[in-house]
Automatic annotation (TrEMBL):
<keyword id="KW-0648">Protein biosynthesis</keyword>
<dbReference type="Pfam" id="PF18553">
    <property type="entry name" value="PheRS_DBD3"/>
</dbReference>
<protein>
    <recommendedName>
        <fullName>phenylalanine--tRNA ligase</fullName>
        <ecNumber>6.1.1.20</ecNumber>
    </recommendedName>
</protein>
<dbReference type="InterPro" id="IPR040725">
    <property type="entry name" value="PheRS_DBD3"/>
</dbReference>
<feature type="domain" description="Aminoacyl-transfer RNA synthetases class-II family profile">
    <location>
        <begin position="168"/>
        <end position="418"/>
    </location>
</feature>
<dbReference type="GO" id="GO:0004826">
    <property type="term" value="F:phenylalanine-tRNA ligase activity"/>
</dbReference>
<dbReference type="GO" id="GO:0005829">
    <property type="term" value="C:cytosol"/>
</dbReference>
<dbReference type="InterPro" id="IPR006195">
    <property type="entry name" value="aa-tRNA-synth_II"/>
</dbReference>
<dbReference type="InterPro" id="IPR045864">
    <property type="entry name" value="aa-tRNA-synth_II/BPL/LPL"/>
</dbReference>
<comment type="similarity">
    <text>Belongs to the class-II aminoacyl-tRNA synthetase family. Phe-tRNA synthetase alpha subunit type 2 subfamily.</text>
</comment>
<keyword id="KW-0547">Nucleotide-binding</keyword>
<dbReference type="Pfam" id="PF01409">
    <property type="entry name" value="tRNA-synt_2d"/>
</dbReference>
<keyword id="KW-0460">Magnesium</keyword>
<keyword id="KW-0479">Metal-binding</keyword>
<keyword id="KW-0963">Cytoplasm</keyword>
<dbReference type="InterPro" id="IPR040586">
    <property type="entry name" value="PheRS_DBD2"/>
</dbReference>
<dbReference type="GO" id="GO:0005524">
    <property type="term" value="F:ATP binding"/>
</dbReference>
Length: 434
């Protein structure tokens, strides 16, 4: 079917544009074209159609005159027929022309025929969804209608395990290290002798960190069975008590019985020392990292635990400097989504120079301390058997702190320990540093 547009209805009411142009000239006589364009509605289309129909002509001075005295408004009459739904009275050619001129538009109607089917009824039958033991026992299932199974339905999502937020952050940091070309270091032994945990790192036996207030000492076994051979124990004793490799040492007695005491490792740097000792005889430049648990005898509060994870990275090579360390750390933290990094001079027994690392956290709007770094001292490296000229860069941070920032925890006991909400673990998103 067809129906008139708004423009088509205007023509039915007032006449076609070409007829209006002819009538205007009939009243005014020969008329300048500019006058027609100014005073006759839609005169541009009307003049064009009147010229095409041979009703008017334009002289050399742009004066328009009528060629015929009377005209028939076929456009208006055809539109009236269409409006009265007498579509067959109008030729298809005219309808196509009117459609092109946007005077009419084609409309469609969708008709549905509804018939009674085999299961037609005046009431709805309740479909059963379960076959119960009572239905089987009484035989009532024979007269009941059951809802068909939708085998494509997803059903109830089964419960499943979820990665802890710490593990998500650990996996992301591991991926960052691997992308930077690092290899992962073995850190499987949680129990270390004081020799590897303190002495091999040039940490004096009188250092406060070795006190029972800061370290967990084991009672069984209380001491290590043995220490490495190949002269490392003698070199460590010498550099502590007398000095060596350009250092004055600590000028105090070094006691083997203190070095044999077993502890829960206070840092994974003990494993780094063991790793450097093992590669010393056949040294090759390396970049390694580790992410593992360490233990400190600390007072528990919202930001401190006695058991936490340490992230550590070391680079060992010839001819590297503090500038290389700053560059590697900047790259590492930029990949963690913390591009603004500052360094502050600090003291560590086994690194010189040493630096604390601060990053600007946009969410908190302030600078926060995220780790420590430095260049391992010659007293440590030469005692471990590394060749002269080898420099080792190292840095470390807690795994828990970036996890708390990333997932919005204010209290570390909500992240680790018996107060953790299991729903929080299920609902936490994938970790991505950006």
């Amino acid at each position: 079917s067809w129906e008139l547009t708004g423009e088509g209805n205007d023509i039915v009411e007032k006449g076609s544009y070409e007829v209006l142009v002819h009538e205007y000239i009939s009243k005014k006589g020969p008329t300048p074209l500019a006058d027609i364009m100014k005073n006759v509605p839609n005169s541009k289309i009307g003049f064009s159609k009147a010229m095409a129909n041979g009703w008017v002509k334009k002289g050399a001075t742009n004066v328009v005159t009528n060629v015929v005295d009377t005209v028939s408004d076929d456009v208006k009459q055809s539109l009236i027929l269409i409006k009265n739904k007498q579509y067959n009275e109008v030729s298809q050619e005219k309808k196509n022309e009117f459609k092109k001129r946007k005077l009419i538009k084609e409309s469609s109607m969708t008709v549905f025929t509804v018939l009674k089917g085999e299961e037609f009824g005046m009431s709805l039958t309740k479909l059963e969804t379960e076959l119960t033991p009572e239905m089987i026992e009484t035989g009532s299932w024979k007269s009941l209608q059951f809802k068909s199974y939708n085998l494509d339905a997803k059903g109830v999502r089964p419960p499943h395990g979820s990665l802890h937020p710490l593990m998500k952050v650990r996996d992301e940091i591991r991926a960052i290290f691997l992308a930077m070309g690092f290899s992962e270091m073995n850190t499987g032994n949680y129990i270390e002798s004081s020799f590897w945990n303190f002495d091999a790192l040039f940490q004096p036996q009188q250092h406060p960190a070795r006190d029972a207030h800061d370290t967990f000492f084991l009672t069984k076994p209380a001491v290590a069975v043995s220490l490495p051979k190949c002269g490392i124990v003698d070199r460590v004793e010498e550099v502590h008590s007398k000095g060596a490799y350009g250092s004055l040492g600590y000028n105090c007695d070094w006691l083997l019985k203190d070095a044999l005491k077993n502890v829960l490792r206070t840092h994974t740097t003990a494993n780094s020392a063991r790793f450097l000792y093992n590669i010393g005889p056949k040294f090759q430049p390396v970049k390694v990292f580790s992410i593992d648990k360490v233990y400190r005898n600390e007072t528990l509060d919202a930001t401190h635990l006695a058991e936490f994870h340490q992230v550590e990275g070391i680079v060992a090579d010839y001819g590297i400097s503090l500038g290389h360390l700053i560059g590697v750390i900047n790259d590492f933290f930029c990949r963690m989504g913390l591009p603004r990094v500052r360094f502050k001079p600090a003291y560590n027994p086994y690194t010189e120079p040493s630096m604390e690392i601060f990053c600007y956290h946009i969410g908190l709007g302030k600078w926060i301390e995220v780790g420590n770094s430095g260049m391992f001292r010659p007293e440590m490296l030469r005692s471990l058997g590394l060749p002269p000229g080898v420099t080792v860069l190292g840095w470390g941070l807690s795994l828990e702190r970036p996890a708390m920032i990333k997932f919005g925890f204010d209290n570390i006991r909500e992240l680790v320990g018996p107060r953790v909400n299991l729903r929080t673990i299920h609902d936490n998103p994938i970790c991505r540093f950006n």
